[in-house]
C-alpha cells in the first residue's frame, strides 16, 4: 500500500504579481495620492499659519496698552496715620516681597489657560493721582507746573540701559515718613522736562513735609514698544495735557518718576493715593487662532471669573481687573469668521474635485480589469476575497504615498496642529484604497461574463438609480433654497453665514457651511440634470446625420452616443472645478477692485501732497518734474467752512475746473462737465456754481447761499451739480467751486493732486519738503495687501483654485483615457476601410466635442448661478481691506467674464487637443500602416 502524497498548496503572490504586471498604473496612483495627500495635509497647516499671523498682527496693532491684563488693588479712601498699625499693614503690602509672592501665584494660575510672557509682565506700586511739583527749574510750556506719577516697578535693571548715573536704591527700611528717596527717569522725560542726574524733585506730602525725590539715573528702554514700557507709555515718555475747560487751552507736562521697588511705602506719605498693580502681558508667540474660544474664556475668567477669585485670594479681596484684550480677540474672531466661508468655498470645491478624481482613478482601473475580475468571479471567487485582494494591492501603493505627501506637507508648511494634517492625509489614503474595491464589488455583485451595452443615448437608468438621483437632487435643491432664503439674509455682516463664530478645523470654518457648499450643491444639481438631458440632442441629431453624404458626422454622433452612461462623476468633477475656478476668479477680481478703489478714494489721485497751510508758490512746478508725474491739479481747501445759517460745517475745495474734471474722469470719482463750474461769480455779481454732496444739496437745494471760509471771507454759491464722491474731499458733506472765483487768500492751494504712472514716492517727498504730507496710491494699496490674515486667506484661496483646475485637467484626461484603447482600435479598423488621417482626426474631435461642450456650457451656467446665488450675501470688504468699513463701501461679488469663459473654453480646447494628439499618435503606429487599405490625404 503506497503512501499518499501530501497535497502542496501553492501561494500565489497576488499583490506582487499585480504590481509587476502594471508598474505604470501603480506609479501613477502613487503620484496622485501623494499630491492629493500633500494638498490635504498642507491646508490645515496653512490655515493655522495665516490665522496665527493675523492674530499676532492684531495684537501688535492694538498695542500692549490694550492687550495687557491689568490687576490692581484700589487705594483706600482715607489717610493713614504714620506709625500706626494700619500704616504698618499697608507698608508691608507695598513691599517687594509681598508683591513678588502674589505675582507668582497669579502668573501660575493664569498661565494654564492664557499663555503669558513672564519677561514682559510686571508688578509694582503707582500713585493714582498726579502730583503737582512746584519746582521752578522744571519745564513749564504755558507757565503751569508739571505733574508726576510715582511708579515703583520691578525689573528696571533688566529692561533699561543706563544712560547716565546709576539705578535708584532704597536706603534702609522706607516708610510713609521717609523724607528722601531715589528715582530714575527715562531719556525722554529728562530731555523734555530739563531733569539731570542729581536733580531733586519735591513732591508734595500729605500732612507732612514734601517728599524729596533725588534723580540718580537716566535710562533708555531696551524694548520701548514691549509691554513692560508700553502698557503705561508714561513710563518711557512724558506727554502734554491741556487744562480741562481752559479757554486758552494751556498745557502742562505729565511725567513719571521711577522709584526703586523698596521705596514704594514712601508713596503713602503723599496725596497720590498709591495702589498695587500686576500687569499680565500675553505671550504673542504662544497664542494661536484656533484657540480663540479658549483664550476668550480665559480672559473673561481673569476679568470676572474663577481666575480673578484666585488672584483675590493671592493678593487682596479688593483686586479688580481691566483689559481690552477681549475686544481685540472678538474683533479678530469676527474678521476670521467673515473670511472663513469665502476660503471654504474653494476648499470644498477642490476637495470635491479631488475626491471625484480619486474615485475616477479607481473606476478606470476597475474597467480596465473588468474581464479579469469577471473571470475570477466566474471561477468561484467571492466578493469578500476579491475586495480584500484589491484593497491589499491598492493599500501597498496608496498608504506609503499618502505618508510621503504628509511628510512633505509637515516639512514644507509649519503649523501648530499636525493632527489635523494626519487626519486629512489619512482620509485621502482611505478614499484611494477603497475606490477600486468598492467599484469592483458594485460591478461584479452578480457573476456574469457578458454585460449589456451602457450607451448614454440608449441606456435606461434603473429605478434604484432614479430614486437615488431624485433624492440627492431634492436635498441639494432644498439646501440651495435654504441658503437663499435663510443663510444669505441672516448671516453676520453680510457673510452669508448664520452664527459663524470662529474658525476651526481643517478649513478654518465652523458653524453653517451652507455658503461654502453652494457651488458644490449647484454642481450636483447641474450634473444630474445635464446627464439626463444629454441623450436628447444626440437622439435628435442621429437620424438627420444618417442622411448626410459624409460618414464622419454620422459616425461621430454614433460614437458619442455609445459613451458610457455613468458620466455623472466626471461631469460633476468638471462642473465643480469650473465653478470653483470661475467663483475664485470673481472673488480675487473683486478683492483687487475693492483694494484699488479704496486706495483711490483714500488719496484722490495717484499721489497727493497736502498741508494745513497754503503751499509754497513754486511747489507745483517742482512736483511736475518728479519722475512718473504727468499732471498736477492744485486745490485750495477750507476745512471748516460754515454757511451763513450756521447749521452745517463742511469743507470747501477751490479747483481749476478743467484740470479737476479730467482728474475726476481719471479716478472715476464723480466725473462732471468742466463748463458747469465756470466762475460766473468771479466778480461777485452772481453766485459761484458749486458741486455738492447729496447731503449738502438736500439741505440747501439750488438757492444761492453764503459760505464763510476759513480766512473769514464770504462767498455766495449755488449748487448746480451733485456727486456722491469727489477726488479732493472725502466724507458725506463737501462743496467744490472754481477757485478763480474765491478771494485771494482762500484760493491759494493747500493740496496738490498728482496723476501719473507710478510717481516716485521718495522724489515726491523730497520735492514737497517739510511741513507737508505725501500720500501715494501704490503705498495705500500695499497697506491693504500686507495683511497676514487677508493675504494668507487669499493665497490659500488661489492655491485651492489652482489645484481645482489641475484636478479638472486630470479628470478630463482620465475620461479620455478610459476610451483611448477603444478609439485606437476603431481607427485601426477604419483605416483598413480607407479612412484617411484627416478624417480620423475629425472623427475623434467630433466624437469628443458633445461631452466637452456639455461640460463647458454646464460649467458656465453653474458658475454664473453660484455667483448670482452668493453675491447678495458675500462681503469681500473683510478679505480685501484692513477694516470691515471701507470708504469705498461694501465690496460685493460680481461675475467676472474672463473667469467665467476662460476655464470653460480651456476645457474644450484641451479635449480637442487630446483627441488630435491621439489621432496623430495612432496614425504613426506600424500596425495601422500595415492594416490600412490606402492613404488618400
- Summarize the main sheet: 12 strands, mixed
Q: Considering DSSP H and I runs of 4 or more, what fraction of the residues is helical?
A: 40-55%
Strand content: 5-15%
Which structural class do the helices and strands define? alpha+beta
Number of strands: 21
Using only CA atoms, what is the Rg?
Answer: 39 Å
Please state the average pLDDT score: 80
Poorly predicted tracts of residues: 487-511, 926-937
Specify the overall morphology: flat
N- and C-termini, Cα separation: 79 Å
Total helical segments:
30
Provide a descriptive summary of the structure in words.
With about 950 residues, the chain is α+β, with helices and mostly antiparallel strands. Among the domains are: about 80-100 and about 120-275, no CATH class; about 450-595 and about 790-930, no CATH class; about 610-770, no CATH class. It is built from 30 helices and 21 strands. The strands form two sheets. Strands 1, 2, 3, 4, 5, 6, 7, 8, 9, 10, 11 and 12 form a twelve-stranded mixed β-sheet that branches. Helix 2 (about 25-60) packs antiparallel against helix 26 (about 790-830), helix 5 (about 95-110) packs antiparallel against helix 10 (about 305-315) and helix 19 (about 570-605) packs across helix 27. It is flat. Residues about 485-510 and about 925-935 have low confidence and may be disordered.
